[in-house]
């Protein structure tokens, strides 16, 4: 990975200016009751209140807006069953661009409906990664659309970094910031902007034990994907990409894993105390903090609540 391709602080600041009219500047919230349980001061960055209900709106919007006119003309494409699908469809529609979203036939109807609402054209395929990638290639070849991946892409990472940029602009002396990690776009962007703005601050990730590729890769120093992840945190089942891994390996302090029980417990705590609707993936960083209190005791901690797209009929409590 060539150094000049890595977004610099000015690039991230320009990305924030580029997308600001299309996203929310989400609030930071605190909760004395959770602070007392955790033994530290926590500031929750509420990306569950973001457009499309997740931080993915940032990266997708940045990537679409950076496309040149001739590339925009044929639209954009991706394969996703989650928040990136809706985020890309919305970003494309906002600038008058066609979007083609390859989704597995097994994707929840609520997620397909979201993509259609935002103007995306869904192309269904068999529920395997190979089938998704094969169908995406076919769609790109037939339409000339530009493929915008969900995380392993510099423009996506640059956009996701604007979330932590907003946190640092609040002039809070964060000792650490925690994010969940799936494909690694949010974590990589958070680590990058934190490195530029406060080299003393540490960035950590929380990850489910049943989808622990980042934990394994971080310790091995090389990518170790998980092929059959199993976790309630469905947004974190994706394995790291080569670009996100390099940034994480360079700028992240550590990756913590948590059990399913710990995820559910942290999720319930946020519902009960913060009164916020979050998806299971969002609870993972708090679960990681609560399982490692000694690391964060007495410090100022930022936690990114990555999204709020949860099927309320299937809450785990």
From TrEMBL:
InterPro entries: Ser/Thr_deHydtase_PyrdxlP-BS (IPR000634), TrpB-like_PALP (IPR001926), TrpB-like_PALP_sf (IPR036052). GO terms for biological process: D-serine biosynthetic process. Gene3D superfamilies: 3.40.50.1100. It comes from the Bacteria. Its cofactor is Mg(2+); Mn(2+); pyridoxal 5'-phosphate; Ca(2+). Keywords: Lyase, Magnesium, Pyridoxal phosphate. Residues 21-307 form the Tryptophan synthase beta chain-like PALP domain. One of its GO terms (molecular function) is pyridoxal phosphate binding. Belongs to the serine/threonine dehydratase family. This is Serine/threonine dehydratase. It comes from Echinicola pacifica.
